[in-house]
Write a structure and sequence with these properties.
Elements (H helix, E strand, L loop, with lengths): L1 H18 L6 E17 L7 E3 L1 E13 L4 E26 L4 E27 L4 E21 L4 H4 L2 H4 L3 E3 L2 E12 L4 E22 L8 E19 L1
Antiparallel strand pairs: 1-3, 1-10, 2-4, 3-4, 4-5, 5-6, 6-8, 7-9, 8-9, 9-10
Length: 240
C-alpha cells in the first residue's frame, strides 16, 4: 500500500510538471496541528467510552496544480499524529482458584491512544474571488506507529497492578480511508492558512477487554469498542 501511495504522489508530480506549460505549478510545505478524536461503537449492553481530543502535529509536502484559474488539485503527502484520550469502567469477573468461587473487581480506567500516519490527500480546490478556496477530497492513511497506555485510576493499589490491565487491549488497523472538507485563506500568493475537518470511514482499531472469564457456567465476555478517526486540522502552507 505504501508503494501505491508513493506511485500516486509521483503521478501528481508528473501531472504538475505537465501543467507548467499551461499554468504554473507550485510546490511547498505545510505545518500545523491536528485536534484528533474518535467515534466509538460499543458491543451490545456495554457502556461506551467517555472520550476527549488529543492534539498532535501534522505536516509535510504540498503541491498546487492549476487546472484553470479557479480549479486546482492540491495533493499532500503529510505526517499526521492522531489518537484520543478516553475513560471507561469495567467489572472483571473471574474464578478464584483457591476458593472455587466467582469474584469480581471494579476497574476505573484512563486510556491514552497515540497513532502516527503517513497520509495522502489528493485535495480538489475551488478558488473564489475573495482569497478563499473551498477544499474537498479523499484521504488515504497508512499507520506507521501506535502506542496505547491504560491505567487504573481507582484507589486500590492491588487493582491498579492487576494482571488483567497488563494484557493487550488495542489492536490497530494499518489503513484508513476518509474524507477532508475545508477552507484555505490566501494571505499572499505563496502563504496560506488552512483549516479542514477529517472523517475516517474505516475502523482504525478495536479496544477489547475480557470482563468475564466464564466462571460459574457463564460464557466468556469482552467489552469491545470499535474506533473510527475524526479530527480538525489547522495549518500554514508556504508555496515556493
Amino acid at each position: 500500500m505504501k508503494k501505491i501511495t508513493l506511485l500516486i504522489f509521483i503521478t501528481f508530480i508528473s501531472l504538475g510538471m505537465f501543467a507548467q506549460s499551461l499554468l504554473p505549478t507550485k510546490y511547498g510545505i505545510k505545518l500545523g496541528a491536528n485536534i484528533a478524536n474518535v467515534s466509538s461503537t460499543a458491543n451490545e449492553d456495554v457502556k461506551n467510552i467517555d472520550n476527549s481530543a488529543l492534539v498532535g502535529i501534522a505536516g509535510g509536502f504540498y503541491m498546487e496544480i492549476a487546472l484553470n484559474d479557479k480549479w486546482y488539485i492540491n495533493p499532500e503527502l503529510v505526517y499526521v499524529q492522531k489518537g484520543v484520550l478516553f475513560d471507561y469502567d469495567f467489572t472483571h469477573i473471574y474464578e478464584n482458584t483457591s476458593t472455587n468461587q466467582a469474584e469480581k473487581d471494579e476497574h476505573n480506567t484512563s486510556n491514552e491512544l497515540k497513532l502516527a500516519y503517513i497520509e495522502l490527500n489528493p485535495t480538489i480546490s475551488y478558488k473564489t474571488p475573495y482569497k478563499i478556496a473551498l477544499n474537498f477530497g479523499p484521504s488515504l492513511s497508512f499507520l506507521i506507529e501506535d502506542e496505547y497506555i491504560m491505567t487504573d485510576t481507582g484507589d486500590d493499589d492491588a487493582l491498579q497492578n492487576h494482571e488483567v490491565l497488563k494484557e493487550g487491549v488495542f489492536a490497530a488497523e494499518s489503513f484508513d480511508v476518509g474524507l477532508n472538507l475545508g477552507l484555505s485563506y490566501y494571505i499572499s500568493e505563496n502563504l496560506i492558512i488552512d483549516g479542514k475537518v477529517n472523517r475516517g470511514f474505516m475502523s482504525i482499531g478495536k479496544v477489547a477487554k475480557e470482563t468475564n472469564t466464564g466462571s460459574d457456567g457463564n460464557e466468556p465476555r469482552e467489552s469491545i469498542f470499535d474506533l473510527k478517526s475524526k479530527g480538525i486540522v489547522f495549518s500554514v502552507a508556504y508555496l515556493f
